[in-house]
């Protein structure tokens, strides 16, 4: 049994975020049945605090309140204090974020929730400054002791509302058709900020799933505006301060509508999802800027987030408690680093002004246009990178999250194909081997690890789905059957433990044998990452054409049912279902499958197939009968031959890249 009282218990946690609070005078414990039992035995509320390591305001509240002796004394006396890493326990985060939004009208981190001992929330908020937090603690304590009936009633009401929210989407949505997807794209395009790129108002988050969907829509329909919208956003983000102009990598979001000032934390999932979209753009257009951005983002993931073959979670927004300290510049600092001539030139190139674009006269580097003097640009970037490396650096969350590594496997594999650079495929392969070896324990997938030690948290649907898709992507490029086997095992586990037996096409985010929470999360809407339901549908869609029967038929039926259940999102809220839209676009085309009968180590036709295939297509290459798609399919007249199919309908084989490209233009 875990100890729960009398001292801070976070020193042995597998989450760096929790360990950041191990020296607090607060008697923090991790979420557990024992912690809830202690609250019941003491007859006190639970104070649940949820955050993550790269969160700026989490650090602020920790410094102001959780490190303060008076605040800690009030917390310890009146509450059982539970600290949760939202990245390690996304199930808890989902439940109590819904409660926070329902009660306060907005959510965010740090999340601060007061619960009954059985986990029902009765008051929720986000960040509180020290004095306000002390007042809140006193008010909640008094209310708990003197107005208990009101607390119980409020907690019952919010629990009932959460259960209603968990019921999911209504049935009876429209049929998946080209018109439905065209309408969804039209709705998305109406929300574009044409002048500044992206969608909606500040803060602006990189819309990676929507960008992938727009590229796939362009490939299906030839619609120029879909590609133009995606390209405007690709350029605006990559030239703004939200992108690190020296080391590569994207920050979590921009606080302004023009992508100038970022919230400086860098997350693995953002960069992996964006890498996939940029790689698709680079592969589709061969645009030099797209290729550079793909390469630099891939390098950032490998160089800055890599650790022992797998990839760590994030870099903090803060350095020594100051947001953005590592990244911002003043004109005088450029002069000191580069000399006056190059300093003035760099200030002009990167938009560094005396007034500044950030705090205290500092500026975030931007790149409004590529300079003509490429040699000088490369030299200046290298020198500024060298100087910046000598500054204090942001902390890194070394936790390894299964789903985010799955995103990285997919993205690095696709970047390798887009750029023709095998190094990124090698990185994806190493990551896949490490994550499968470490995170599959006794036949079941785990959510996270730290320093080679796997945490107790069970994997959620997102983990199974993202890793399965990554392995299926890797299998297509490497022809390694091991990855196909592991991926289909993960999808089988998803079907067994996460599919809703009472509602066809609906998915729960937690397994049927996972810890029972106040409600069982089942959210089909995209959030910071694509929804688990949309991700598993993509994995099933791919496996339906890579796995042998009867597994393949089961996967195809499950993918179709999922898409059918999700059509209300495409009809009513397409910006909240970018990944659904991407998967739907692929489904409308079959998805396209290309099997190339060849020697995969030396086939120009296979390389052309990978370069030309639309997003979501399935591409395999090898000798006759070497995979499901190559059964009975051989070279033609001694030449490599590509067999193009849509669903269960196949064209005659082609032997040239030109004929292969023409095959992809056939109407849906």
TrEMBL record:
<protein>
    <recommendedName>
        <fullName>Spermatogenesis-associated protein 20-like TRX domain-containing protein</fullName>
    </recommendedName>
</protein>
<dbReference type="InterPro" id="IPR036249">
    <property type="entry name" value="Thioredoxin-like_sf"/>
</dbReference>
<feature type="domain" description="Spermatogenesis-associated protein 20-like TRX">
    <location>
        <begin position="8"/>
        <end position="162"/>
    </location>
</feature>
<dbReference type="Pfam" id="PF03190">
    <property type="entry name" value="Thioredox_DsbH"/>
</dbReference>
<dbReference type="InterPro" id="IPR024705">
    <property type="entry name" value="Ssp411"/>
</dbReference>
<dbReference type="InterPro" id="IPR008928">
    <property type="entry name" value="6-hairpin_glycosidase_sf"/>
</dbReference>
<dbReference type="InterPro" id="IPR004879">
    <property type="entry name" value="Ssp411-like_TRX"/>
</dbReference>
<dbReference type="GO" id="GO:0005975">
    <property type="term" value="P:carbohydrate metabolic process"/>
</dbReference>
